[in-house]
Amino acid sequence: MSNPPRLLDRVRIAVRTRHYSLRTEEAYVGWAKRYILFHGKKHPSAMAAEEVNTFLSHLAVDGNVSASTQNQALSAILFLYREVLKEEVGWIGDIVRATRPRRLPEVFTRDEVVRVLRRMNGVARLISTLLYGTGMRLMEALRLRVKDLEFARAEIVVRDGKGHKDRVTMLPVSIAEELSSHLRAVRRMHDSDLEAGLGSVYLPEALAKKYINASRGWAWQYVFPAKRISLDPRSGEWRRHHYDERLVQRAFASARSAADVGKHASVHSLRHSFATHLLEDGYDIRTIQELLGHADVKTTMIYTHVLNRSGGRGVRSPLDGVVLGDQSGRVTSRPSNGGRPGEGRSDTWVEDSDGGQERYVPEE
Predict the structure, then answer these.
(1) Which of 162, 216, 241, 334 is catalytic?
(2) Which of 45, 90, 349, 361 is most buried by its number of CB atoms within 10 A?
(3) What is the pLDDT of residue 65?
(4) Which residues contact 362 (CB under 8 A, 6 or more apart)?
(5) Domain with CATH 1.10.443.10 in the chain
(6) Which residues of the chain carry a pLDDT beneath 50?
């Protein structure tokens, strides 16, 4: 009789049964292992809320991890208890959860986007350009298959995005030719792999069983394949995976530095910039919500706070309606149209001598 699988192997089986991604599997197994080792290899069944809180406090105080990382660890531990050990977690209410601070996303100006992208090259540049032109997340772009590109309709179908949802976004006409040229090079590489007896690509388990030969078909190949063939850790088969996200992130960081853009922003900021610039152009918030794949419009509304117009309502700062002048009392002029040069007459302001206030003197 074979021995039952070890606890961490049971975590892997539970994750794969639910068709979670390989990254989620690695994260959940890693956190379960750290939790058990932190408590001296004590079995999780013998622990509860007190031990979980102690571990989470250790991460925050000694590990100085972010709130999102702390919450990821909690999710992994709860998955261990609920889905692997099948235990009731009535003590979950006693667990202290980290509160994520609400921060505005970092957004590039249009000029900054151009400056950064011009300093990139190759596949990393094409991927980054596509992120800004479509609003996709980095991993959504890297997981694109050839069949997901609809050149005739200028559309891209994003499959199994965040929340396991499909959606449709635009395919920018301005990069259609460059993308077609890239696909021709990918096709030549795929044909070469087939001649070498390779050419297989990862498919979700159900599809791999239903369509036996689909993994070698052109339609299922990644739009942005990896440069090298590697061993699939799940199947043990030699395959060409998608392009490594770290290569894009590093190339983007180097280009941002070379462009002298003084913002602490990652390649994901191109998605934020996509949404903000569409709002600036007057597009409806609901349309942008669908393009981004947000389940709730409240998530999309964060971009209205990024605009320098109080959510697009055109509110102007009161400071822009006054002139403080300088200490010499020099007369200055400001357009009376709310700061738009070249329109309307000028209102002249002088500094009052008795209280530092200003009074208006119309020009004759």
Answers:
(1) 162
(2) 349
(3) 85
(4) 347, 348
(5) 102-314
(6) 1, 309-312, 331, 333, 335-364
Phi, psi (degrees; rounded to nearest 5) at 151:
-65, -35
Q: Decide if 167 is catalytic.
A: no
Provide the angle, in degrees to the nearest 10, between the axes of the packed helices 22-38 and 7-17. Answer: 150
Query: What per-residue confidence (pLDDT) applies to 315?
Result: 62
Q: What's the fold here for domain 102-314? A: hpI Integrase; Chain A (1.10.443)
Task: Give Cα separations from 257 to 112, 242, 266 (angstroms).
Answer: 11, 26, 11
To the query of whether residue 6 is one of the catalytic residues in this protein, the response is no
Give how far the C-alpha of residue 272 lies from the chain's centroid of Cα atoms, to the nearest Å: 8
Q: Answer yes or no: pTM beyond 0.85.
A: no
Q: Which fold has domain 7-94?
A: DNA polymerase; domain 1 (1.10.150)
The strand order across the sheet containing 358-362 reads 332-335, 346-351, 358-362
pLDDT at 307: 66
Quote the pLDDT of residue 27: 93
CATH code 1.10.150.130 region(s) in the chain? 7-94
Q: CA-to-CA distance for 121 and 138, rounded, in angstroms? A: 17
Question: What was the pLDDT predicted at 333?
Answer: 46
Active site residue 137: yes
Give the three-state DSSP class for 119: coil
Q: b/e string for 130-167 if b means 16 or more Cβ within 10 A?
A: bbbbbbbbbebbbbbbbebbeeeeeebebbebeeeeeb
241 is catalytic: no
pLDDT 10s digits, 259-281: 999 888 999 999 999 999 998 88
What is the model's pLDDT at position 20?
Answer: 83
Q: Give the count of beta carbons closer than 10 Å to the beta carbon of residue 273.
A: 24
Return the pLDDT at 94: 67
